[in-house]
């Protein structure tokens, strides 16, 4: 039976190997400290945090997330440790909430390896605090117990560490926030919990909402943090139901019952801003499964108001399922390894095992148990991956153009759309445990952050080495493919692309955009050309910001282009002075909220002369690579995923044909 603790209460722990689950409703940093009998931390090596996620007996998440699972092995902590404190903190940087009083009360639970909950604690009463000690595992008379603490600190992690008498409190707090910022920069943003409805009665005024040219005032929730993604049932291929809308405007769905339903009453599917709302059409039914075999997958079997939304939710469900399946396999293998090491240590420490071959037999038995555990975990992984592969084989051909690869036949029937799609495919993701499965990397539109195509010298996953000149060429070609896809999925006249190519080195790669005539103007060359483009886009950001803040989005100067804007910057930092660099930083920070997006093709090392001035710029952009590279992380467990950029098939003319249609539609629209 679970013990529901209140502040100060304690409860005995049944075993040494535990899991601590955290649910906060908003991205938080989770960590743990090791303390002596007095709770003193004797050095930074006694703290497990995203920058150093593994310490003796502890493993924590590598990035900020709304949900965490912390692994604890109390038998493995040093003998000098008598307290293990679990801490939570809000990420610094201004994007999310700055105090726990502005978010839902965090919930923590201690479970055994079998998943049975031992004790739980809801941390209430927090206000101005930005860091909190949630739980404390402590040793008493040779046994371990858990105590609900709930001690908050308005001064954040620095004050928390100082309270535990850590000498390097401020330095460690800063390094943790830096590691969290880096983790957020490389994480694929999770999808919002509620996808917008599509249709003629969306309710957005032309040019001011998701269906118009200008973006909404804030693409985030009131705290400035994207809402968590859809939850899944934990079984690959059976993605959890996601209620499309809450109970009413500004009200979250009631916990414990379907959104929009009353206790014991029918479910109300009406949109809070629709008249005569109707329930979403049910997803297609899966064909009946043969006895003893899993049901056959069906494209679009997730929830949603349209097939596009169902496929979007289904892809994200597959993404989460694979992340959690791989996490379970890795955890099982780690457990098998640690168990075998412990058994072998016991054999070596027993003098009797050296007599009569008993030690050899014990070692063979330990290795056999290890092999059995690993094979069982591999069997489960293979089963889940096979089910996801079967689902991907059904889903991939059914994807619309915005979600599809360039080699998908859907592009042969391409027509310029009349509405903006929900999302855009920026490439594929896969894990080493499931190398045959590629998950589409879908990013919501409009873009919430800029893109950085890293043209730095790199060796791809397959071992092929690309020099700096080749990486620059591949980087710009990748940027052109991304820009072409963005142009293709927006209605005519609602997306404008600008290019800064100071030295003119990208003429060959930019040829598809230039020759088709889809650019707003020829690529800008030299310092003067770059300054002119940056000045115009900076002015546009200022004007739209003033209009939105003044509550008059229609009071914009005549002739101002209200479409979404994309600036491609090639070969940075060549041709850029300090003023231009500051304008780039301004566009990266303020532009996405008002429809101005940045795509940098750059090698970070080449801009090292600017020092730490550009560090916020790189963190604000989503880093992509022109070659396969394992630098992205998922928003659930933080695996390192291998990213593969979108590639136009060799010899294919699909990109040029698509751009020609876009250019023709733009000319018709301009008349």
Throw out a few tags for this protein.
single chain; alpha+beta; twelve-stranded mixed β-sheet; five-stranded parallel β-sheet; 671 residues
Strand content: 15-25%
Helix content: 25-40%
The main pleated sheet reads as: 12 strands, mixed
The end-to-end distance, rounded to whole angstroms, is 72 Å
Count of discrete alpha- or pi-helical segments spanning 4 or more residues: 10
Mean pLDDT across the residues is 81
Structural class: alpha+beta
Radius of gyration: 27 Å
The global form is: globular
Structure report:
It is a single chain. By secondary structure, the chain is α+β, with helices and mostly antiparallel strands. The chain has helices spanning 156-163, 169-186, 307-349, 358-398, 468-489, 507-516, 526-549, 578-590, 615-620, 654-670, and strands spanning 3-5, 10-12, 17-35, 47-48, 54-55, 58-59, 65-73, 83-89, 107-112, 117-122, 131-140, 143-153, 423-430, 439-444, 451-454, 458-459, 465-466, 495-500, 564-572, 596-602, 622-624, 629-633, 640-644. Strands 1, 2, 3, 4, 5, 6, 7, 8, 9, 10, 11 and 12 form a 12-stranded mixed beta sheet that branches. It has a 5-stranded parallel beta sheet with strand order 18-19-20-15-21, sandwiched between helices. Helix 1 crosses helix 2 (169-186), helix 3 runs antiparallel to helix 4 and helix 5 runs parallel beside helix 6 (507-516). The longest helix is centred in the middle third of the chain and has 43 residues, at 307-349. The relative contact order is 0.09. Residues 194-238 and 240-278 have low confidence and may be disordered.
